[in-house]
Design brief:
about 160 residues; Heat Shock Protein 90; 5-stranded mixed beta sheet; two-stranded antiparallel sheet; 3 helices; 7 strands; globular
């Protein structure tokens, strides 16, 4: 990815369809693990030029993290919406949260939070750096909202005005 070798296939797509496909793919599995898993879609989102496979991969990474870092309150929501000149998809959990000092670092390769009960969580520390790379390739933005012991929300924003 970093060498610029990853090829993106930007096509006109509905962000809701991409989010819905991820939701459908994971719903049964997550419910079997005791999660409440929902999707809330904003039907006013226009067609965007995105790489469906890459955006799907980004959402899957966020859902996977939400599962890994959920404690006793196993609830995950995928939500789509509009924010100024951006369409967004976000994944929200009610997990352990991310300390403020680590919020910028979580997008760095191999970074893993070292406090709390996360030492039991398996992973390479690459998931969020992959998400960031995908969003950057779309000339988008990522927002992170988090509170310790209350959960995290990652919002991926895609410009309505970008053409590739």
């Amino acid at each position: 990815m970093e060498a610029g070798k990853r090829q993106y296939n930007f096509v006109e797509s509905y962000l809701n369809d991409v989010a819905e496909n991820v939701f459908r793919s994971y719903k049964f599995h997550l419910e079997q693990k005791g999660f409440t898993f929902n999707i809330v879609k904003d039907e006013t989102i226009p067609i965007l030029k995105i790489d469906e496979e890459a955006v799907s991969e980004a959402i899957v990474n966020l859902v996977d993290n939400a599962v890994k870092y959920s404690d006793s309150k196993k609830e995950i929501i995928i939500r789509t919406g509009m924010d100024n000149n951006f369409a967004f998809v976000e994944v929200e959990d009610k997990g352990i949260g991310i300390p403020e000092k680590d919020r910028k670092k979580v997008f760095e390769k191999f970074f893993r939070i070292s406090s709390g009960n996360v030492h039991n969580v398996k992973g390479s520390g690459l998931g969020l750096s992959i998400v960031k790379h995908i969003v950057d390739a779309h000339k988008g933005k990522i927002e992170l909202f988090s509170e310790i012991n209350k959960g995290s929300k990652f919002r991926l924003l895609f410009s309505l005005n970008k053409t590739f």
